[in-house]
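The authors assume throughout that readers already know how a fold can be written as C-alpha cells. A single example would do more here than another paragraph of explanation. An entry of this sort, consisting of the sequence and the corresponding C-alpha cells, reads as follows:
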Amino acid sequence: MSIKQVYITNTSVFLPNDPVSNDEMESYLGFINDKPSKSRKIVLRNNGIKTRYYALAKGGKPTHTNAEMTALAIKSLFAGNPEKIKDLQLLSCGTSSPDQMMPSHGVMTHGWLPETNAIEVVSPSGVCCAGMHAFKYAYLAVRAGDVELAVATGSERFSGSLVSNAFEEETQKLTELKKNPYISFDKEFLRWMLSDGAAAFLLSDTKNETGLSLRVDWIEGVSYANEMEVCMYMASEKQPDGTLKSYLDFTPEEIAERSILSIKQDIKLLSDNIVPLGGRKIKEIFERRGLTTEDVDYFLPHISSDFFKSKIFDLMALYGKGIPYEKWFINLTTLGNVGACSAYLMVHELFHSGKLKKGERILLLVPESGRFSYMYAMMTVC
C-alpha cells in the first residue's frame, strides 16, 4: 500500500441566523437575576470580539442543533455537484458541545444526511482540539489509502449552555442563603467568549483539476495533561486539590443549584500557561523539521481573545525572526470563539479569499485549555 498525498479540495461553513453584536448578546442569552451583566463589557473589551453567531432566536429559543448545523455545512461542500456526496466514504466530526451524550455527534450528523451511503463515522471529543483531531483522522485515512474521499468537521453549539436559565437556580439559591447572588466569574466569563457554528473540509487523494487545493503536509498534536491540572471543564466541579468531581456524583438538586452543567475556566491557570506550553511543542517541531518562521506565508492561530495575540507574537519571535502580523489571518473579531470550529473557519475564509498563490505555506496552531493540549498543521497551496 503506497502512502497517498492528501488534499483539501473544498471547504464550507454554516453560521446560524444573523450576526449578533455585543450590545445584543443579552437579548439572546438573557439576563441573569434580571440584571445586566457587570462583567460583559470588561470581557468584550479584552477579547476584541465584535460580532458572533448563535443558534438561538431572541429570547433564547434554539433554532438549530449542533448536528443539524454540521450537516448543513457538509451539504454545502457538494452544492456544485450534489450527487458526489454519494462518493463520501468517511465522516469525521469533532465538537466539544454535542447535543447529547449518546449517540455520538458524528452519527447524529450522519442521520441528517440521508443522501449519503452507509459509511464509517468517528466523533473525536475534547475542547478546541476536537475539530483538529477529526481533521487528522480523516487525513490519515486518506493518506493510508483506506478511503479516497473523506469529510472532516468542527462545530459548536455553546449557546444552549450560556442562556440565563442555565444559571438561574444557582443565583436564586445564593440569594436565599444571603450570599452574593451572582455566578462566579469562571462561569460568567465564558458567556461573552463563546459562539456557535459549523464548518467542513473535503479531503481527497486527488487535487482539484482546476483552481486551488491545499496539500496537507503534516498534522501533529501534544497533551500536557501529565503535568497540568484541568483548566476548562463542563459537567463537573473542580475540587481544592485540582481534581474534578463528576456530575454523576452530584444529586439532581445540586446539579441545578450549582450550575454543574455550565462551562467553566480557571482564568489564572489559562493566562499563565496556554502560550508558553504551546511554544514548547512548536519549537520542537520546527527544529525537527528544519523549519523557520520565514517558511510560513500565512499563520492561522486559534485565539480565544485578542489578549493573547501579542503574547503569541513574542513567543514566535524566539524561533527565528518571528511572524509579522501581516502574515496572520484571524477572524475572531467577526465570528467569535467557536472552539473546535475556529480553525476550520479561518481556513475556509482564507481558501475562498482570492489571496492564495501556489506554493504558499499555511501554519495552523490550535491550543486547547481543557488540560492543555495543542494541535499544529502545515499546508501548501497547490
Summary: The mean pLDDT is 93. Residues 217-223+265-381 form a domain with the Peroxisomal Thiolase; Chain A, domain 1 fold (CATH 3.40.47.10). The radius of gyration is 21 Å.
